[in-house]
Amino acid sequence: MIKSEMPDDEAQTSWARLVRVSQSVLASVEVDLRREGFPPLAQYDALLELRRAGDKGLRPFELRQEMLLAQYSVSRLVDRLVKAGFVDRHDSEDDGRGQVLKITSSGRDLLEAMWPIYGKAIQNHFAVKLSPTDIRNLAHLMAQLDTRQPVK
Amino acid sequence: MIKSEMPDDEAQTSWARLVRVSQSVLASVEVDLRREGFPPLAQYDALLELRRAGDKGLRPFELRQEMLLAQYSVSRLVDRLVKAGFVDRHDSEDDGRGQVLKITSSGRDLLEAMWPIYGKAIQNHFAVKLSPTDIRNLAHLMAQLDTRQPVK
DNA sequence: TCAACATAGATGCATCTGCAATTATATTGA
DNA sequence: TCAATATAATTGCAGATGCATCTATGTTGA
Prior knowledge:
The structure is a homodimer. Chain A is built from 6 helices and 2 strands, in the order H-H-H-H-E-E-H-H.
């Protein structure tokens, strides 16, 4: 309960930069995607997870855990994906409360269409500014920060 | 124009983690602040910059450059701060198009009231998960990513 | 077995955000 | 000097987000 609980200057600087820079870089990537008429990154990410999950699909709460999003965010994200035809949603047979989500072929098409633009954006706004070692270190640092306890 | 422009697997992983984890950690911190009835982090950040700027204040576009935000985001952020009485806004004498922003004493009070909660949140969701070396490395990596070319 | 509690998911409402367009002043160059 | 262009900042509108709450099903233990 003493000041040992407070972050020191180094931690404050590091934190402030993480917040600003990651948000700024992310915004740049989103702009590149939008300029080409593509949906936001979150949709791409969700579709990626669903493609990865294969035939058995994913439950919305599993998607939520993977994406570290709030429950209502996933609910609405999935709504949009279903409405756009990129995802199939049907009731779970094991769990009466739940659903199962699967990517459609149209969803797969979107992933393929977006990747050239998205990959280029990652390259331009992110990868090109870091050495291979930096990139690996950053991945490691993020893994340490990830305690997999999504908000709410 | 060949595939050298595309990020490799390491870069993709690193990027994906950066996006998800930084957003997730940030959300956790925001939740802590809201739970105590405080305004969002962006307001705190803006006030910090204005306090740092001292008596001469800051122009909105300078604030924008510091915070790496879009222009309209700053415009509205400042609106809220002014309306809440945390910031004074008056026309610039040098530049007829512009304004000068200064933190009020009420704004300073907010910073002081928020810091115990905010600092603790940074500590709990961020600093505690990283070693001092990690923290320094992360700060350095973020500085490399920061080319200070705000979106739009 | 059934009341208490936990989990899955959706949604109304207020707020916030992004985009594009707008107003207004400043700067530049033929 | 003044038309063309650039910069500072705001705003209408549509869509996205956060919070709290709600419905429905599942699980647990006396």
